[in-house]
Specification:
430 residues; mainly beta; 5-stranded antiparallel β-sheet
Length: 430
């Protein structure tokens, strides 16, 4: 950060040859061997004759990684500078409410995309580094009781700080018990019930047995809310959730609606050649299930997916080098000739939606430029939204606007069916 050389930093390089196809996986980029800087902070990247662009990034255990830099031929005579930010080190002490150490807690700390994580040792401690300077959020999670605690220290560059996080913990007790039945009053096995407010990483859930019965355990409290499942492969339950006193044993749910299971075979092919599209992936989803769905890989151009026979079942499928297809399943097989299978035909190109936001104010940025290869291809609207539709798969997409630092996005970061990708631009400080 002060301009001094950093020895022992790892420098990663990716190269793109002249004339490389942007429609192949990875946009025509290939990895070069990683390098390590010498005592003067220098690393020499060997560049083959046909390479026209080199993408550089750097990192070091004591520093926050530098943003990647693209260097194009002809190569500069002076060294390319990658400026690292001095990282902070944070020693986290996790204690229960009595002050005793908690081992095995998952701890995460950081801000934005710069994060570090670890697990507390027998003394309830873990050291996380490097962390970016500034306001930092620290969260410790105790899995056995699905409880957590947090702290919000402010770190300076090069800091070595200690922070204590208190997490309530104890012996779980019976929180609620009951039974789940189907439309005819018979038991439903394998239904997962959860306590409302329990984190997704916590164990506060229970599965019904062959008689439809369940028991939920948690730390003692006055009242709990038990939730019925709401997933893509689930039915509709009455009530969807219910508040009961802690320890209640007569909690009952009835399934009022369900859909037959569907095992769907999908073939993903190139619309021009009919050949399988490799490295494809997709999402089956439906508005009936509240927009929920199930993701599936189709790495060899084929997939077998478990679903339900919803009338409005949709499929979104994409792959590097191809436009994402998003349609009702009935549109792909309008005559119903393949009731358990469809063929998805992808066309070459790139389609994605993005929203561009101010990193400080969180407000949308209108008229931000979207550039590919130095050429403007689109502008964001007044809500910061933009839809990109290109004939060829780009190797990188740059978002820029007057008064902000430009940002380069990886085209492969978004997945089929994802909402608009978020791009955060940092205001330029004079």
């Amino acid at each position: 950060p002060d301009g001094a050389p950093v020895a022992g930093a790892r420098v990663a390089a990716r190269v793109r040859a002249r004339g490389a196809s942007a429609q192949v996986h990875g946009g025509g980029w290939s990895d070069a061997p990683d390098l390590v800087t010498d005592a003067t902070g220098l690393a020499r990247v060997p560049v083959p004759a046909r390479v026209e662009t080199v993408r550089l990034s750097a990192g070091s255990p004591r520093y926050v990684a530098a943003r990647m830099v693209d260097v194009a031929a002809p190569w500069p005579a002076q060294p390319v500078e990658l400026r690292l930010v001095a990282g902070a080190s944070l020693r986290v002490l996790v204690r229960d409410t009595a002050g005793d150490p908690l081992a095995g807690c998952d701890v995460v700390a950081g801000s934005g995309m710069q994060r570090a994580s670890g697990t507390t040792d027998a003394a309830g401690e873990v050291v996380l580094a490097p962390l970016a300077p500034g306001a930092t959020f620290v969260e410790a999670r105790h899995r056995p009781t699905a409880t957590s605690g947090s702290a919000s220290p402010t770190l300076a560059a090069g800091d070595e700080r200690t922070v204590e996080v208190r997490v309530p913990a104890g012996e779980p007790e019976l929180a609620a018990a009951g039974r789940v039945v189907d439309e005819r009053g018979g038991p439903v096995e394998g239904v997962v019930l959860r306590l409302a407010g329990a984190p997704a990483w916590g164990p506060l859930e229970a599965t019904t047995d062959a008689d439809g019965r369940f028991e939920l355990h948690a730390l003692r409290r006055t009242e709990v809310v038990v939730e019925a499942p709401r997933g893509f492969l689930e039915g509709v339950y009455d009530p969807p959730d219910v508040a009961v006193p802690f320890g209640a044993r007569d909690v009952h749910f009835r399934r009022t609606q369900s859909w037959p299971p569907l095992q769907l075979a999908l073939d993903v092919v190139d619309a021009r050649t009919g050949e399988p599209v490799l490295r494809a992936e997709g999402l089956l989803y439906t508005a009936t299930a509240g927009g929920r769905g199930v993701r599936f890989p189709a790495t060899a151009g084929a997939a077998l997916v478990e679903a339900r026979r919803y009338a409005d079942l949709r499929v979104a499928v994409g792959a590097p080098g191809y436009r994402t297809l998003d349609a009702f399943l009935s549109e792909l097989d309008p005559r119903g000739e393949r009731p358990t299978g469809v063929t998805v035909r992808l066309r070459p190109g790139y389609t994605r939606r993005y929203v561009v936001l101010d990193e400080d104010t969180l407000e949308p940025i209108p008229e931000a430029r979207v550039e590919v290869g130095g050429v403007r291809v689109a502008l964001t609207d007044r809500d910061g939204l933009v839809r990109i539709d290109l004939e060829a798969w780009p190797d990188a997409i740059t978002f820029a606007c007057e008064g902000y630092e430009p940002w380069t996005a990886d085209p492969t970061a978004q997945r089929p069916g994802d909402p608009a990708g978020e791009v955060w631009l940092t205001p330029v400080v004079d």
